[in-house]
Write a structure and sequence with these properties.
about 400 residues, alpha+beta, single chain, 6-stranded antiparallel barrel
C-alpha cells in the first residue's frame, strides 16, 4: 500500500497533467463536437500568447484525440491503463498524433515488473518459400527465403549492464491489452552529436498498426535492472536500483506509414518496415544530461540495407519476458543472418537463429563490430527458435530524420 505522502505526490502530478490536458484541448480548439479533429485547427480567438508559448514549450501536437482526459478520474484510468470506460476502437482510430505527457511516478519497479511482452508470432503459412530472387537463391536478396536457421540459445549479458558498451534498455507502454514491454537502444543523433535523446525500437512497440493508433505512457529505461536482480526481488526494489539512469518519456515518436497502414498483431503483416524512433525526455525535469551521456554511449543506425552475404554475423539484444524468461535480464543471440520473405512485394527481412521470446521486440540487431544498428527485432515463431527484423532503408531513414529534427 502506498504511503500518504506518495499518494499526495501522485495526485499533485495528476492534477498538473490534467491542467495541461485541459489547456491543450482549449488551445487547439479541438473538442468533442469538432468533426474535423484530424485537420490542423485554427487558433481560438481567445487563445493567449502565454497559452501558445506553453503549448510550444511542452511540445504538444496540434491535433489531439477528442477523448483526451480532462479530469482526475479519467487521468487515473489513463495512468493505470484501464480502457474499460473508453471506446477502445474509437480512441485508437482517432489517435492520429502521438501524445505522451509525463506522469511522475507512474512507472514504479513493481509496475515495470508486471508488464507483459508485446510479441508478434508468425507460422509457416506466413512465409513465402517459393523459389525466387537471384540465381539459386544466392544472388540478390529480394524475394528469397533461406532454410530455417538452427536455434541459437540466448546468452545472458554480463552484469552490470551500465558498465558495458550496449546502450540497450526496456520500452514500456500502456496498450488496450494492458501494460506491455519491448526493448530499445540509444542511437546517435547527427543534430545533437554526443548528446542524443533518440531511441530505436519496433513500430509495434509504439503504435497498434492498421486501424489503430498510438500507445500511451511510453517510456524508455536504459540499462534496466543493471545488476540483473531476479524478478522476485524487483517488486520491492528501489527505482535507483532498477533505473539508475532515470526514466525517459517519449516526447515524439514515429513509425513507418507501412506499419501504420498494414501492421497486425499476428502474422507478418507490416513486419518488413516494423521500425520506430522516439525522442525522449527525462522524467526528472531538473536533469540537463542527455540520454546518450547517461547511458554511456549510442550506436550508429545503418540505412544502407547491406546484403546478407556481406554480413559475417548479427547480434540481437533484448529483454525477453515470456517463458522461460521473465523480463528481468538482458540477453543476446549472435548468428550469421539468412533471408526471410513474407511478402514478395516488400523488402526481404534478416533472420537469425535465437531463442529469445516476447519482450525482446524492438531490441537492436548489431553488426559484428557492435557499432552499427542494422535492424530491430520484429517477429518470431511460436516455437521461439528464430527472430526476424526489417532491413532499414529509405522509409526507416525518413522516420529517423523526422524525429531527429523535432525539438
Amino acid at each position: 500500500m502506498p504511503s500518504i505522502a506518495r499518494s499526495a505526490r501522485r495526485r499533485s502530478a495528476l492534477a498538473a497533467a490534467a491542467v495541461v490536458a485541459v489547456l491543450t484541448v482549449t488551445a487547439s480548439a479541438c473538442g468533442p463536437e469538432d468533426d474535423k479533429a484530424d485537420e490542423k485547427p485554427a487558433a481560438a480567438p481567445s487563445e493567449s500568447k502565454e497559452a501558445k508559448d506553453l503549448k510550444r514549450d511542452l511540445g504538444l501536437p496540434d491535433n489531439l484525440p477528442k477523448d483526451l482526459p480532462t479530469s482526475l478520474d479519467d487521468l487515473d484510468k489513463w495512468r493505470d491503463g484501464q480502457w474499460k470506460n473508453w471506446n477502445r476502437d474509437k480512441w485508437l482510430s482517432e489517435a492520429k498524433e502521438f501524445f505522451n505527457p509525463i506522469i511522475d511516478d507512474l512507472w514504479d519497479p513493481d509496475r515495470m515488473k508486471d508488464a507483459d511482452g508485446n510479441d508478434r508470432k508468425v507460422d509457416d503459412s506466413d512465409i513465402d518459400d517459393s523459389q525466387s530472387g537471384g540465381k539459386d537463391g544466392t544472388g540478390e536478396d529480394e524475394g528469397v527465403t533461406d532454410p530455417t536457421p538452427q536455434p541459437v540459445k540466448a546468452a545472458a549479458v554480463p552484469t552490470p549492464y551500465n558498465q558495458d558498451d550496449l546502450p540497450v534498455g526496456k520500452v514500456f507502454m500502456d496498450t488496450p491489452k494492458g501494460s506491455m514491454v519491448c526493448s530499445g537502444t540509444v542511437i546517435k543523433d547527427p543534430n545533437h552529436p554526443g548528446k542524443s535523446n533518440l531511441v530505436a525500437t519496433a513500430g509495434h512497440c509504439v503504435h497498434g498498426g492498421a486501424g489503430k493508433g498510438w500507445f500511451r505512457n511510453v517510456i524508455f529505461v536504459p540499462d534496466y535492472n543493471p545488476q540483473g536482480l531476479p524478478n522476485a526481488q524487483l517488486e520491492n526494489a528501489s527505482k535507483s536500483a532498477v533505473a539508475p539512469d532515470g526514466i525517459w518519456w517519449a516526447k515524439h515518436a514515429r513509425t513507418t506509414n507501412h506499419w501504420i497502414s498494414t501492421g497486425a498483431d499476428r502474422g507478418g503483416k507490416g513486419a518488413q518496415q516494423d521500425f520506430a524512433v522516439m525522442k525522449v525526455q527525462p522524467e526528472d525535469k531538473s536533469s540537463t544530461t542527455s540520454l546518450e551521456e547517461k547511458a554511456g554511449g549510442a550506436v550508429q543506425v545503418a540505412f544502407n540495407t547491406p546484403r546478407v552475404k556481406s554480413l559475417k554475423s548479427l547480434s540481437a539484444v533484448g529483454y525477453p519476458a515470456a517463458p522461460p524468461f521473465d523480463g528481468s535480464k538482458m540477453y543476446r543471440c549472435t548468428d550469421k543472418p539468412g533471408r526471410l520473405t513474407l511478402d514478395p512485394a516488400q523488402p526481404t527481412m534478416y533472420r537469425i537463429g535465437c531463442t529469445m521470446t516476447a519482450g525482446s521486440s524492438g531490441g537492436p540487431w548489431l553488426s559484428a563490430s557492435g557499432k552499427r544498428l542494422l535492424s530491430v527485432t520484429s517477429i518470431g515463431p511460436v516455437t521461439a527458435d528464430w527472430l526476424a527484423g526489417a532491413r532499414l532503408g529509405k522509409e526507416a531513414k525518413g522516420v529517423f530524420d523526422a524525429v531527429s529534427k523535432q525539438g
